[in-house]
Amino acid sequence: MEQQRIIQTISLLSQQGNHAEAIKRCHDILRQQPKSQKILLLLSQLQLKENDFKRALATVEQAYEIDKAQAEIALQRALTLFRCGKNACALAALSSLRSYAEKNDNGPLLIKVGHIYTMMEQHQPAYECLKLADTTQPNSEIVSAKLLACEMAVGKTTAAITRVNKLISAAPQQTEFYYNRATLGHWSKGNNHIEQLHAVIRQCQNPAQALPVHYALSKELEDCGEYQDSFAALKQGYEIKRKLMRYDVANDIAAIDQIISSYDKQWFKQAINTAGLEQELSPVFILGLPRTGSSLVDKILSSHSRVSSMGEVRDWAMTMVRQSQGAGSNKFDLINTITRCDMKPIADEYVAAINGYAHQGPILVDKTPNNYLYLGIIKAAMPNAKIIEIKRNPMDSCYAMLKTLFRDGYPFSYSLDDLARYYHRYHLLMEHWFQLLDGDIIQLHYEDVVSHQERHSRRVIAELGLDWEAQCLDFHRYGTVTATASVAQTNRPVYSGSVNNWLNYRDFLAPLADRLASLGVDY
């Protein structure tokens, strides 16, 4: 009873952000009870929050050795191994946990294992775990909702539509399901849910609950060609989202400016990892702003027999955080610290991490869009890495982001002015990288890929030093699965319906166009 009270006190300190005091309390108790698994677990969780990776892993391993049968400890160990870049060990740990959960029909454990698989972009095993959990808890809305996300990620669109309709019927107040459904299909005037969505909005108890329904309504109205009403619904949605956030685009702009000033020619010349020049099979990075077509290009490449996509993994960013121990908790400290880091350990740790996923390869694709922030560091650490930037008409790009309700990230996409200002800085950053790397970036325009698919697919395959394979034209039948906002579109053949889509909203997007023009961005 006393230990439970102590754990509650430490947990409260953690929730308040007072990690240092919480960690001190853990150590105080462990001096008296060195084999307390509950305190060791709590301490490991706190150390992980503080990015103290080595200590977090050592602590959870200590707890695990005391009693390997404790599932909660084993789960924390798997998560910590992943956060430490030891992906092969993390997957082995998850496999053992999965086997145990399957043998014992342990649905709650399967859900937790599936969650970590999802964090690792391992969507197929995550789907399999949740599918089995669904049979052990057939009436669980939580399980069904998680399984819906997995079905969307692995391309089981028909099953996902069936599931989301059941979820809406069972829990109409859970409004995120309406947005899921809207993104899974292409709607028409004879087949839509517009009246239902209007009714749901009227019944919502607060703006936050109505938020995803506004986005769903905008999507279905756009599909039906009702552009004025579509934008009106979208505007209501993004204005609600913006008010719910504490965000200042000026901070992101300042970070990009610091990146540009910190990573210059002199730094690059001194920092370059010459040992990386001997790497024969370096990773491929597909990057750019979200909704510009990176998922499409990723699908095309990963349909090649010698290419495997890892999806939107976060291994590069996590590697930099690990290598910059003591950099502080904000991005400005990280930027400064990385300029002084040795690039070889960063490259070695990243390669070890991605090889741990055990993809067939031999060429691995990292399509995490945000890697554009680290492009110079990537090339300094791995000079032979191939960089593919996906470009798109600025207005189409900004509108595509504006109409997407992202699960997380991209806070600049909920305001026309924020969008214009961030896009401009992104444009300057990519110009900086292009000059720094003497043009060693493969640039692909989304509009070119959808209008002349074979020509530009052949070009990029050749740039990677690969022989052409006809199956790259049938990418929707092959390749990777990934949890991306455009998953429904990338699971079908190339289509050009999104090219110049912004023109349907020319009047409504005029403030965005004017702001971009004032910043010198041509569209």
Give a written overview of the molecule.
There is one protein chain. By secondary structure, the protein is mainly alpha-helical. The protein has a domain at 249-487: P-loop containing nucleotide triphosphate hydrolases (Rossmann fold, 3-Layer(aba) Sandwich). The protein has helices at 2-15, 19-32, 37-49, 53-66, 71-83, 87-103, 107-119, 123-136, 141-153, 157-170, 176-184, 194-203, 207-223, 227-244, 249-262, 265-271, 294-302, 315-323, 331-338, 343-355, 375-381, 394-402, 416-436, 446-451, 453-463, 487-490, 510-518; strands spanning 284-287, 307-309, 363-366, 386-391, 442-445. It has a 5-stranded parallel beta sheet with strand order 2-3-1-4-5. One of its GO terms (molecular function) is protein-tyrosine sulfotransferase activity. This is Tetratricopeptide repeat protein. It comes from Sinobacterium caligoides.
Secondary structure elements and pairings:
Layout: H1 2-15, H2 19-32, H3 37-49, H4 53-66, H5 71-83, H6 87-103, H7 107-119, H8 123-136, H9 141-153, H10 157-170, H11 176-184, H12 194-203, H13 207-223, H14 227-244, H15 249-262, H16 265-271, E1 284-287, H17 294-302, E2 307-309, H18 315-323, H19 331-338, H20 343-355, E3 363-366, H21 375-381, E4 386-391, H22 394-402, H23 416-436, E5 442-445, H24 446-451, H25 453-463, H26 487-490, H27 510-518
Pfam family, one: TPR_19
Keywords: Transferase
Protein name: Tetratricopeptide repeat protein
